[in-house]
Automatic annotation (TrEMBL):
Pfam families: Ldh_1_C, Ldh_1_N. One of its GO terms (cellular component) is cytosol. The lineage of its organism: Eukaryota, Fungi, Dikarya, Ascomycota, Pezizomycotina. Keywords: NAD, Oxidoreductase, Tricarboxylic acid cycle. NAD(+) binds at residues 8-14, 34, 95, 118-120, 230. Homodimer. The active site is at residue 179. Substrate binds at residues 82, 88, 120, 154. This is malate dehydrogenase. The keyword NAD applies. It comes from Penicillium chermesinum.
Length: 328
């Protein structure tokens, strides 16, 4: 039996993500939590003739406790999205507190659940969740994930003309680092099956993967950021975690994890100089079973991208850790 919970379920991501989870045969129970509108969203989804039993909660009457109790997997898309001209870090002021408080709820009511953080800035919100879990004595690094799947999905889509796949998701293109601008590093040289990108197209393609989010923010023109593609990506990652937890083997997805707490991660942490980093991770019954180091043998161009990513990541991670350790 799998109980999935969406925190921020009434939002632009939350609604289509809840739809995909409701439609999935892998989910037996689905609890929706938000500060607004969950009764309506839950009532709407409850008419779908799929397996999952659905419930909706608001903060009143212990709603968070009721939503989280018995959870196996919790996905967090709660928080404000960007408007044109904003960076993801500009969201920290509001979203840091939202993620901290929701993480406190998970620590209390569902300490063994897999926690998947979508709320931006992911480079800081995941360290925030980790610090909250540590303070509560329940931190299991194998169970905490920053969702960076949308960067992978974009890399697959934007390189289709070179990878040659009719279905672009058939390409495996690792994207490592973090989830904002220069901290996003597509490692095209590590794609499998391998393919060539013409030299005169390389910089533009890297830039498009790094700043794909801005493309959507600009096109939505003040109405938010990526929601539908994010729901697709969030569901893809959640499904991978659930399938692996049920014993399916060989599932590998890049995700932003606390490296020292995952087998194989220490080596990547030493090589990069950061503790939180997105790298391909082999998923298993207990979550992140193994962090896979694919940084050896990258190209000189990719080395430069990695240096810039790590420089940006350090400050983002520190900011998240400080927010919990020394609250403003
Ligand atoms: P949205 O404003 O449409 O929805 C956010 C939802 O969160 C709203 O329904 C709101 O009521 C709810 N919420 C606010 N405070 C809450 C709280 N304390 N508890 C529960 N729910 C709360 O925003 P969106 O477009 O769905 O984006 C959500 C977040 O996801 C943003 O921070 C955005 O930047 C981020 N995002 C991340 C990725 C990624 O790749 N990781 C991609 C796209 C968006
Ligand atoms: C994205 O990559 O689309 C998200 O992180 C949302 C954003 O702010 O760009």
């Amino acid at each position: 039996m799998v109980k999935a919970v969406v925190l921020g379920a009434s939002g632009g991501i939350g609604q289509p993500l809840s739809l995909l989870l409701k439609a999935s045969p892998l989910v037996d129970e689905l609890a929706l939590y938000d500060v607004v509108n969950t009764p309506g969203v839950a009532a709407d989804l409850s008419h779908i003739s799929s397996v999952a039993k659905i419930t909706g909660f608001l903060p009143a009457d212990d709603g968070l406790k009721k939503a989280l109790t018995g959870a196996d997997i919790v996905v967090i898309p709660a928080g404000i999205p960007r408007k044109p001209g904003m960076t993801r870090d500009d969201l920290f002021k509001i979203n840091a507190g939202i993620v901290r408080d929701l993480a406190k709820g998970i620590a209390e009511f569902a300490p063994k659940a897999f926690t998947l953080v979508i709320s931006n800035p992911v480079n800081s919100t995941v360290p925030i969740a980790a610090e909250v879990f540590k303070a509560a004595g329940v931190f299991d690094p194998k169970r905490l994930f920053g969702v960076t799947t949308l960067d992978v999905v974009r890399a697959e889509t934007f390189t289709q003309e070179f990878s040659g796949h009719k279905d672009p998701s058939q390409a495996t293109i690792p994207v490592v680092g973090g989830h904002s601008g220069e901290t996003i590093v597509p490692l095209f040289s590590k794609a499998s099956p391998s393919f060539q990108i013409p030299a005169d197209r390389y910089d533009a393609l890297v830039n498009r993967v790094q700043f794909g989010g801005d493309e959507v923010v600009k096109a939505k023109d003040g109405a938010g950021s990526a929601t539908l593609s994010m729901a697709y990506a969030g569901f893809r990652f959640a499904e991978a975690v659930i399938k692996a937890s049920k014993g399916e083997k060989g599932i590998i997805e890049p995700t932003f994890v606390f490296l020292p707490g995952v087998a194989g991660g220490e080596e990547i942490s030493k090589a990069t100089g950061v503790e939180f980093f997105s790298t391909p991770v082999e998923l298993g019954p207990h979550g992140a079973e193994k962090a896979i180091n694919i940084l050896d043998g990258v190209t000189e161009q990719e080395k430069k991208l990695l240096e810039a990513a790590v420089a940006g990541l350090k400050g983002n991670i520190e900011k998240g850790v400080e927010f919990v350790k020394n609250p403003p």
